[in-house]
Amino acid sequence: MEIIMVRHTRVGVPKGTCYGWSDVPVADTFEQEATLTKSRLEDVFADGSPDIVFSSPLTRARKLAAYCGYDSPVVDDRLKEMNMGEWEMQRYDDIKDDALQMWYDDYMHLRATGGEGFPDLYARVSEFLDELREKEYRRVAIFAHGGVLLCGGIYAGLFPAEGCFSHLVECGGIQCFHI
Asked: Hey, which residues does 6 pair with through a beta bridge?
């Protein structure tokens, strides 16, 4: 089964803001970025459309799916970005939590205060992909978030968990693999 994962476009929050699960607006450049993503997807799907399209429930993913012609994707909560707990919608520089430095030092294993850690995110994305594997789809499109795409890449063996952030797809970017 071919999986085409699409990362949402840039968001309309100040740089350095921790927004994870928060339903933030897209940037003012949405239409320009989305047009480029749509064009890239048309190339990917030149030999056939996806059998099904999934999306995170967050607006930034659903809005890009709709712009690309998929107005009614199947929404799945497991495709949300990492829950950043008490840090949501704060600028990282303004977070007054001793746990923040520990998280910076070991973000692949520790949880955000009141939120998730990368293992939690990976577990829910893996569960989603495990279920998808049992279906008879030929091609699946998924509109989601950077962390979700990283988990998909690790799951598919595109790259190891160690150093995975060096493989982060840019906003509006596409990652393809087979499961």
From this structure: 143, 174
Q: Which helix (H) or strand (E) holds 33?
A: helix 30-44
List per-residue pLDDT tens for the chain, 179 residues long.
999 999 999 999 999 999 999 999 999 999 999 999 999 999 999 999 999 999 999 999 999 999 999 999 999 999 999 999 999 999 999 999 999 999 999 989 999 999 999 999 999 999 999 999 999 999 999 999 999 999 999 999 999 999 999 999 999 999 999 99
d(CA 58, CA 79): 9
User: What is the dihedral sign for C-alpha 42, 82, 136, 167?
Assistant: positive
For the packed helices 146-155 and 118-133, what is the interaxial angle rounded to 10 degrees?
Answer: 60
Q: Concatenated DSSP letters for 65-117? A: HHHTT-SSPEE-GGGSPP--GGGTTEEGGG---THHHHHHHTTTTPBPTTS-B
Alpha-carbon distance 122 to 109, whole Å? 11
Q: Which two tokens stand for residue 175?
A: 């990652």
Report yes or no: 171 and 83 within 8 Å, Cβ to Cβ.
Answer: no
